[in-house]
């Protein structure tokens, strides 16, 4: 019921305003005021931008609505596919329009332009063939150089392996030669007798030059 007067003032056309007509005095339209006039400001029961917030909403913090991560990934992927499809369609339509314009321009052109176009296309094909031959020659040389480098690396690796095997073979021969002096159960008694017959005294002192300066006497 409180909004009815405001709605009446908001309707188009003249509306009765008894209090305003009494204040303005007699006129051509007594008791009436044109709709949407400055004297009849629309009122919808809303606050202006300068009014403070309500007490019940003073401390309210607006939070964005929650977003489902899985749904967000699906939406982003679909949007990406949509953009790719649109970009491909635009490129296709643009190429088709340019080709059509070029064909129309060539069709409307003179014989000299057509001959010039054919000559340029022939020169382009020859240049492409020449560049293709140069590229194939360069790739062939690069392939041969790569094969040569691989062969050199394989030969160097074989030489290193051969030298390594020779060194190991020398070590094995040296160990076999040294193994002749090893103490075994078969020559244990003979080596013990040899040590007893030729005693050695390792209890001695040396100077900075490595000379023996003092030695104890074996008892």
Structure, described:
InterPro entries: Ribosomal_mS26. Belongs to the mitochondrion-specific ribosomal protein mS26 family. The protein has a domain at 70-108. It contains five helices and four strands; from the N terminus they run αβαβαααββ. The protein has helices at 4-10, 18-24, 69-108, 111-179, 188-197; strands at residues 15-16, 32-33, 204-206, 212-215. A hairpin with a 5-residue loop joins strand 3 and strand 4. Mean pLDDT is 81; it is low at 11-40.
Low-confidence stretches: 11-40
List how many beta strands DSSP finds.
4
Biggest β-sheet: strands ordered side by side in the sheet: 1-2
H/E series, N to C?
Answer: HEHEHHHEE
Q: Sheet bearing the most strands, described?
A: 2 strands, antiparallel
The overall pLDDT average reads 81
- State which percent range the strand residues make up: 5-15%
Shape category: flat
Helix content: 55-70%
The CA-CA distance between the termini, in Å, is: 137 Å
Quaternary form: single chain
* Tally of helical segments: 5
Class computed from helices, strands and strand pairing: mainly alpha
CA radius of gyration? 54 Å
């Amino acid at each position: 019921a409180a909004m009815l007067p405001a709605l009446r003032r908001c309707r188009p056309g003249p509306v009765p305003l008894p209090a305003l007509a009494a204040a303005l005095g007699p006129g051509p339209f007594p008791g009436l005021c044109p709709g949407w006039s400055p004297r009849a400001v629309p009122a919808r029961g809303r606050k202006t931008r300068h009014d403070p917030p309500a007490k019940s909403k003073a401390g309210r913090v607006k939070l964005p609505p929650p977003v489902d991560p899985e749904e967000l990934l699906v939406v982003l992927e679909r949007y990406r596919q949509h953009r790719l499809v649109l970009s491909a369609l635009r490129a296709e339509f643009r190429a088709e329009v340019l080709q059509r314009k070029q064909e129309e321009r060539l069709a409307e052109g003179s014989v000299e332009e057509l001959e010039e176009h054919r000559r340029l296309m022939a020169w382009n094909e020859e240049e492409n063939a020449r560049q293709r031959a140069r590229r194939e020659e360069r790739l062939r040389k690069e392939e041969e150089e790569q094969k040569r480098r691989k062969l050199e690396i394989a030969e160097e690796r074989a030489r290193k392996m051969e030298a390594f095997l020779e060194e190991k073979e020398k070590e094995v021969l040296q160990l076999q030669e040294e193994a002749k002096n090893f103490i075994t159960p078969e020559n244990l008694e003979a080596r013990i007798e040899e040590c007893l017959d030729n005693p050695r005294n390792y209890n001695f002192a040396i100077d900075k030059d490595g000379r023996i300066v003092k030695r104890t006497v074996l008892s």
